Amino acid sequence: MNLSPAATVYTFGDLVWADFWWRYPDLKFSLTEGDVGWIPYFIQKAENTYKRHSGWTKHRFPDGTGPGDLFRERVLCCFINDPVAVELLHHLNIDNVCWESDFPHSDSIWPDAPRRAVGAVRKD
Fold first, then answer.
1. What is the chain's percent helix, strand, coil content, to nearest 5?
2. Nearest in space to 92 (alpha carbons), one of 108, 77, 80, 106
3. Ordered per-residue pLDDT tens for the chain, 124 residues
4. Cβ atoms of 82 and 5 closer than 8 Å
5. Residue among 36, 15, 39 nearest 27 (CA)
6. Is 69 exposed, middle or buried (0-12, 13-18, 19+ CB in 10 A)?
7. Among 20, 32, 47, which Cα is nearest to 82's?
8. In contact, 70 and 16? CB cutoff 8 Å
9. Which of 41, 53, 39 shows the shortest CA–CA distance to 11?
């Protein structure tokens, strides 16, 4: 259970470097049940990889954008109970961050979910 978000990291990597995005300009993708706090680091890593290695990989993003732009514009991400994510929301596109209650799964924070979710964002 502790390592289940690791699979989401691989999906993140596949999505960031995929070449299908430009053929489907309205396509969005959602990463669920993987939390969000790890994403700013991997965006930073993807940006660095692009800057340092695109010369030999020949990977290109249109119009001067990069992997972080693609992720923030086209990928929705979800969390259940991720205080680190709340602290790092300014690194993400807040419009693409979703809270999931995940009821009745064991990861759910139900029945306190709505109160805890609002409290986490407001810092109550």
1. 55, 10, 35
2. 77
3. 788 778 899 999 999 999 899 999 999 999 988 889 999 999 999 999 999 999 999 889 888 899 999 999 999 999 888 889 889 999 999 999 988 877 777 777 777 777 776 666 655 4
4. no
5. 15
6. middle
7. 32
8. yes
9. 39
